[in-house]
Amino acid sequence: MQLVFASNNKNKIKEVQQLLPSTIQILSLAEIGCLEEIPETADTIEGNAILKANYVTEKYGYDCFADDTGLEVDELDGAPGVYSARYAGEPTDSNANMDKLLLALEQKKNRVAQFKTVITLNLNGKQTLFTGIAKGTITEKRSGAAGFGYDPIFRPSDYEVTFAEMSSELKNEISHRGKATRLLIDYLNNIK
Q: Cβ distance 24 to 123 under 8 Å?
């Protein structure tokens, strides 16, 4: 089975492909000729995942799945949330995003946060959503060189290390994206 993953983020595509069975091949947006930026104008994580999946299905005619992820910080009333990738403005810059978040939490005791991923699957004319959540805390400084995005400052609950200090196998096992992707895989495996 071939499915388009509505992303050109090589890190994200690699992470998801590692989780999928070999019977499912992911095509990136570039591989189907979609080189334009897909609008992400919804005000929720779910809304953006739906917008991206529908864009590919309607404009290119492919079965596909799309995800959107946000980091939700309790002390900041759920921010940066849907704006996580562009928290520090355009162009997107993970280091600037982390700097802004660490500054916003300076002197704050409540550092509870969660990553949330929503995957929208458009398959055979039906739309299904899958949600994965990883709870944790925001550290006071960066730690680790693996992963991407906010990984160097997110320590998942029950662990003493950040996502950026973990092996990709462990991160995939416990992460928001890993959880949502496993729900997607279970669904795909059960429709055969």
A: no
